[in-house]
UniProtKB/TrEMBL annotation, chain A:
NCBIfam families xref list: gatA (TIGR00132)
Known partners and oligomeric status: Heterotrimer of A, B and C subunits.
EC number annotated for this UniProt entry: 6.3.5.7
Keyword Protein biosynthesis: yes
Family assignment from sequence similarity: Belongs to the amidase family. GatA subfamily.
Descriptive protein name: Glutamyl-tRNA(Gln) amidotransferase subunit A
GO molecular function annotation: ATP binding; glutaminyl-tRNA synthase (glutamine-hydrolyzing) activity; transferase activity
GO CC annotation: glutamyl-tRNA(Gln) amidotransferase complex
Ranges where the Amidase domain occurs: 22-466
From TrEMBL, chain B:
Function: Allows the formation of correctly charged Asn-tRNA(Asn) or Gln-tRNA(Gln) through the transamidation of misacylated Asp-tRNA(Asn) or Glu-tRNA(Gln) in organisms which lack either or both of asparaginyl-tRNA or glutaminyl-tRNA synthetases. The reaction takes place in the presence of glutamine and ATP through an activated phospho-Asp-tRNA(Asn) or phospho-Glu-tRNA(Gln).
Catalytic activity: L-glutamyl-tRNA(Gln) + L-glutamine + ATP + H2O = L-glutaminyl-tRNA(Gln) + L-glutamate + ADP + phosphate + H(+); L-aspartyl-tRNA(Asn) + L-glutamine + ATP + H2O = L-asparaginyl-tRNA(Asn) + L-glutamate + ADP + phosphate + 2 H(+)
Keyword Thylakoid (UniProt): no
Protein name: Aspartyl/glutamyl-tRNA(Asn/Gln) amidotransferase subunit C
Oligomer status and interactors: Heterotrimer of A, B and C subunits.
Entry similarity comment: Belongs to the GatC family.
Domain of life: Bacteria
TrEMBL record, chain C:
A GO molecular function held by the record: asparaginyl-tRNA synthase (glutamine-hydrolyzing) activity
Domain Asn/Gln amidotransferase: 332-479
Organism lineage string: Bacteria, Bacillati, Saganbacteria
Protein name per Swiss-Prot or TrEMBL: Aspartyl/glutamyl-tRNA(Asn/Gln) amidotransferase subunit B
A GO biological process held by the record: translation
Subunit text: Heterotrimer of A, B and C subunits.
Gene source species: candidate division WOR-1 bacterium RIFCSPLOWO2_02_FULL_46_20
Function, as annotated: Allows the formation of correctly charged Asn-tRNA(Asn) or Gln-tRNA(Gln) through the transamidation of misacylated Asp-tRNA(Asn) or Glu-tRNA(Gln) in organisms which lack either or both of asparaginyl-tRNA or glutaminyl-tRNA synthetases. The reaction takes place in the presence of glutamine and ATP through an activated phospho-Asp-tRNA(Asn) or phospho-Glu-tRNA(Gln).
EC numbers on record: 6.3.5.-
Pfam families: GatB_N, GatB_Yqey
Gene3D superfamilies: 1.10.10.410, GatB domain, N-terminal subdomain
SMART domains named in the record: GatB_Yqey (SM00845)
Domain of life: Bacteria
Length: 485, 95, 481
């Protein structure tokens, strides 16, 4: 039953065909069985989960069927960069290896209030910096479709856990593609909402102006259901948008007739694997058959997106990560004879190579004499990228591209050359720079590894993205494929 | 733009990052490559372009001046690597 | 050669809000260490700031009172540096786009009005406090303890133009600024308690030169006196070095109030690189006209305006008017009295004299004292009627302040009404004359001024209750017959 989706399981739970305790046990059993191969979790909260499941069961028996929240009793994994009060939250970093947050992230509060059962904290690239989860300071996570391949990142643990049926759904965070790219690599659905839709309060910051929380699920319907729980204005987050939120399940309409879809020329040319390109073109054909209008669109500023991102994100990160200094929480070096020595050694021992690299890069980009040439320049190019989207959305309802230029790569393939790893984020990064909503959903396989289709929407128009994705999903079978483990 | 070993050492100091000799060498090379790549932005004409700090523009997000007492101060202190007299202890400060 | 001193001041004032700048923790003083803290102000991973509206309003209020231009949009920025009392590793401040710019404050020095320019007013958050163990200060201490209670308290920074020309002027400027901030209710402005802090920079140049000399920055001045003393020392040091043909090096120096000297830090200062950039967790502050106007009208008459009105309408000396307006409650008290009794000069004398002395001695404000304008006016009217003497009135005032009883009750209880009954006084006068034959002799020999001594004796006998005029008259009658 752990292979089912949340909306299928809700039906079984409400009709008392199964109990949440049974379901949660099934998920925990699955974790026991496959976690040795996948290593999706940093922490499994076994006892807590069973307690929550019991509470969910009594809620189900007490409430009238129509008043039971859809996620009641459904096991969920939380990316380990979202604070859970009293439960270890490491950000997959040695520097936070012992950190017990004194508070819950807003999304965690919402998930608990919705009755979902938190089964554990999912592994990730340290501080969400990476595209393969190889940068986890604790352990790697393996792609359930091919254990020699990476699950993508940074939400690699979340995506792998969903794909391996080690949970029913999961949360991820997306700064430059960290939900969508692992969703693509693991053959699941991943959605990054518009910046400001979901509260960032309690999300351990990587790059504050780009970070956004979203769902990783087995199908688009579950994405809409989890979106309904996650979104909403939060007075604790100044960048959270005070706007009414629609019911995203109502956006699940199997119809794309006359929908104007722009496919991005720059993301279907050079640097894209032939098999990925072929799958995307097939998906385009499918959408056309279903009545959508597909037109090529050029986004000339995209060639600068990676450079822009890799100045802005590290700059913000260099400041966000200054608080890990051994004074208030987390790791403190034993070599700390004076304050400066403590700083240097704590941060040397606590941070991994990629985190150090980005702190260095960001510090440099902000430092005296370089601010205008690098950081300010990047903010201006960010405007150009936004303008490209504004122009495109005057003509098209949604935009389309592959989520990643390739299928999941093998371990170690890109670790030696950070720049090559950065460039592989080309399709997802521009969306974060513009703050837009975008989904990745399965659209094919190559060498038995999944391929992801990305659909991008206007700011706050998550509904059209979900509608296009839902229609595609309803008329294909890719999302029903399950990896053998 | 090539950056030097000295630049890397200076930046590491600003960021309070202890780096090994190998890391300094490695970062000198890698950061040079990345900054070279980022140098492509210089070609773009952005003379009349305003910078974007927030993708979704907003203003005046304010809260009322109301005291909300935190119930978890002890949990905050419990994370202290070194505590004394209800304070966070740090080793001696030499400027 | 003649030198001119150039001084600029950078003032930090804690804003009088209930809660902190970006979280709901109380700003109250004196709590047990690390009890007024929360995840936000201790920089826990994942927390976000939300700006206190009152802090913005108080800053706008200050900017208006300092005749500044309120900028249509101001932006918070992160000032990045590592220090244990700064939990996030950066201070949220304002940098490129401050809240307000380009104002001035008028001060009075030696009877001259001086207009001191204000470059900018901006908002920021305070840091925590470090307690250095094993020594009174950083150097030599074995370890330090950090208390984050103060972290995140809202501050405004007020930066003056280098328009100040003497240490005395600097002290007057600080006092005037403190009075203003207190008056408009923005800050209690107590330098000794740290709610008002000031750094100064000073340079000296040849008189007539338009270029600035090399400046030094002064820190650790914890009172208005200290500001003046530190600057005096530094002015003298600069002048002597320059007169000797030497050079001043640009540096930060600390004031030592035990020796009244300043000293630089040993060794080389590391050049700061704060890597300011716009705070991505906060959005711009863009006060619209309506909001600013509402704050402006709630502000009412500014102290400067009120002072001028006191001088013009009540014919007060500029000094008295200045003292009255230096605290809003005092000025209010004065005005309420004048409405009841149109004797502004006498009222001002009472307020600035005995009343203020009583309050100062007990560290009270006029509001905290159990005393109303009606009571002061009643007291003055009783003197006018001759019911009590001016001297007795002073005693009555203290009794009223101490007990909280009414003026009438205090007078009745202690029988302090003035003795104006001639028959009783004649008897007392006669006994005084009998007891002081020497003085009587002197009077008769022509030294008539001795009568003042004899009046004094009568007052002593009557415990001050005798009507002094009447006593004088009766004494003369008795002596001259
Ligand atoms: Zn707080």
């Amino acid at each position: 039953m752990n292979k089912k989706t949340a909306h299928e399981l809700n039906n079984l739970l409400v009709n008392k065909k199964i109990s949440s305790v049974e379901l949660t046990k099934a998920v925990l059993d699955r974790i026991d069985k496959t976690e040795g191969k996948v290593q999706a979790y940093v922490t499994v909260t076994r006892e807590d989960a069973l307690k929550q499941a019991k509470a969910a069961d009594s809620r189900i028996s007490e409430l009238p069927d129509t008043r039971i929240p859809l996620l009641t009793g459904i096991p969920i994994a939380i990316k380990d960069n979202m604070c859970t009060k009293g439960v270890l939250t490491t950000c997959s970093s040695k520097i936070l290896a012992n950190y017990i947050p004194p508070y819950n992230a807003t999304v965690v509060e919402k998930i608990k209030a919705a009755g979902a059962v938190i089964v554990g904290k999912a592994n990730m690239d340290e501080f969400a910096m990476g595209s393969s989860t190889e940068n986890s300071g604790l352990h790697p996570t393996y792609n359930p479709w091919d254990l020699e391949r990476v699950p993508g990142g940074s939400s690699g643990g979340s995506a792998a856990a969903v794909a391996a049926n080690e949970c029913i759904l999961a949360t991820g965070s997306d700064t430059g593609g960290s939900i969508r790219q692992p969703a693509s690599f693991c053959g699941v659905v991943g959605f990054k909402p518009t910046y400001g839709r979901v509260s960032r309060y309690g999300l351990i910051a990587f790059a504050s102006s780009l970070d956004q929380i979203g769902p990783l699920t087995k199908d688009v319907t579950d994405t809409a259901i989890l979106m309904n729980v996650l979104v909403g204005y939060d007075p604790k987050d100044s960048t959270s948008v005070n706007q009414p939120v629609p019911d995203y399940q109502k956006a699940l309409i199997d119809n794309v007739k006359n929908l104007k879809i722009g496919y991005i020329k720059e993301l279907l040319g050079q640097g894209i694997d032939q098999e990925v390109k072929a799958s995307i073109e097939q998906a385009m054909k499918k959408l056309e058959e279903l009545g959508a209008k597909l037109i090529e669109v050029s986004m000339p500023s995209f060639e600068h997106a990676v450079a822009t991102y890799y100045l802005i994100a590290p700059a913000e990160a260099s400041s966000n990560l200054a608080r890990y200094d051994g004074v208030k929480f987390g790791h403190r070096s034993k070599e700390a004879k004076d304050l400066l020595t403590m700083y240097y050694n704590t941060r040397r021992e606590g941070f991994g190579a990629e985190v150090k690299r980005r702190i260095m890069l960001g510090t440099y980009a902000l430092s005296a004499g370089y601010y205008d040439a690098y950081y300010l320049k990047a903010l201006k190019v960010r405007t150009l990228i936004k303008q490209d989207f504004d122009r495109a959305f005057m003509k098209y309802d949604v935009l389309l591209s592959p989520t990643a230029p390739s299928i999941a790569f093998k371990f170690g393939e890109k670790t030696a050359d950070p720049l090559a790893m950065y460039i592989s984020d080309i399709a997802t990064i521009p969306i974060n720079l513009a703050g837009l909503p975008a989904i990745s959903l399965p659209c094919g396989f190559s060498k038995k590894a999944p391929i992801g289709l990305q659909i991008i929407g206007r700011a706050f128009d998550e509904e059209t993205v979900l509608r296009a994705a839902f229609t595609y999903e309803q008329n294909t079978d890719w999302h029903k494929q399950i990896p053998e483990l | 733009m090539a950056i030097t070993k000295k630049d890397v050492e200076h930046v590491a100091k600003l960021a309070r990052l202890g780096l090994s000799e190998e890391e300094i060498e490695l970062f000198t090379r890698q950061l040079s490559a990345i900054l070279d790549f980022a140098g492509s932005l210089q070609k773009l004409d952005t003379k009349n372009i305003l910078p974007t700090s927030h993708a979704i523009p907003m203003k005046n997000v304010l809260r009322e001046d109301k005291v909300v007492t935190c119930q978890n101060t002890e949990d905050i202190l419990a994370n202290a690597p070194a505590e004394e007299d209800h304070m966070f202890r740090v080793p001696r400060i030499i400027e | 050669m003649s030198y001119e001193t150039v001084i600029g001041l950078e003032t930090h004032a804690q804003l009088a809000t209930e809660s902190k700048m970006f979280c709901g923790c109380p700003t109250k003083f004196g709590a047990k260490p690390n009890t007024n803290i929360c995840p936000v102000c201790t920089g826990q991973p994942g927390v976000l700031p939300v700006t206190n509206k009152k802090a913005i309003e108080l800053a706008i209020k200050t900017a208006i009172a300092l005749n500044c231009k309120i900028e249509p949009q101001s932006v918070f920025a992160r000032k990045n540096y590592f220090y244990p009392d700064l939990p996030k590793g950066y201070q949220v401040s304002q940098y490129e786009l401050p809240l307000a710019t380009n104002g001035h404050l008028e001060i009075e020095v030696g009877g001259n009005i001086r207009k001191i320019g204000i470059i900018r007013v901006h908002l920021e958050e305070d840091a925590g406090k470090s307690i250095h163990q094993g020594a009174g200060r950083i150097l030599g201490s074995a370890s330090s303890l950090i208390d984050y209670n103060r972290t995140g308290t809202p501050l405004i920074e007020i930066v003056s133009e280098p328009d100040i020309r003497s240490p005395k002027e600097a002290a007057v400027f600080m006092q005037a600024l403190a009075n203003l901030l207190q008056y408009i209710g923005v800050c209690d402005a107590k330098m000794e308690e740290g709610s008002l802090r000031c750094d100064a920079n000073l340079s000296v140049r040849e008189r007539g030169s338009s270029e600035f000399g090399v400046r030094t920055e002064l820190k650790n001045m914890n009172s208005f006196k200290a500001v003046e003393k530190a600057l005096l020392f530094e002015e003298k040091r600069h002048t002597e070095v320059l007169a000797d043909g030497g050079k001043i090096s640009q540096e930060t120096r600390f004031f030592d109030d035990t020796t009244n000297t300043t000293h630089g830090m040993r060794g080389k200062e590391e050049a700061h690189d704060y890597r300011y950039f716009p705070e991505p967790d906060l959005v711009p502050v863009a006060p619209d006209k309506k909001w600013v106007e509402a704050i402006r009208s709630a502000l009412g008459e500014l102290p400067e305006e009120r002072k001028n009105r006191f001088i013009a309408n009540h014919r007060l000396s500029s000094n008295d008017a200045f003292l009255l307006i230096s605290q809003r409650a005092t000025a209010d008290f004065f005005e309420e009295c004048v409405i009841l009794l149109n004797k502004p000069k006498i009222i001002a004398n009472w307020i600035l004299g005995d009343l203020q002395a009583y309050l100062n001695a007990r560290n009270l404000t006029i509001k905290q004292a159990n005393f109303s304008p009606v009571q002061l006016v009643e007291l003055i009217q009783l003197i006018d009627k001759g019911t009590i003497s001016g001297k007795i009135a002073k005693t009555v005032l203290i009794k009223v302040l101490e007990t909280g009883n009414s003026v009438k009750d205090v007078i009745a209880e202690s029988g302090m009404t003035q003795m104006s009954d001639e028959g009783t006084l004649v008897k007392i006068v006669q006994s005084v004359l009998a007891a002081n034959p020497k003085q009587v002799e002197q009077y008769k020999a022509g030294k008539t001024t001795i009568i003042a001594f004899l009046v004094g004796q009568v007052m002593k006998e009557t415990k001050g209750r005798a009507n002094p005029g009447l006593a004088n008259k009766i004494l003369k009658q008795e002596l001259d017959t």
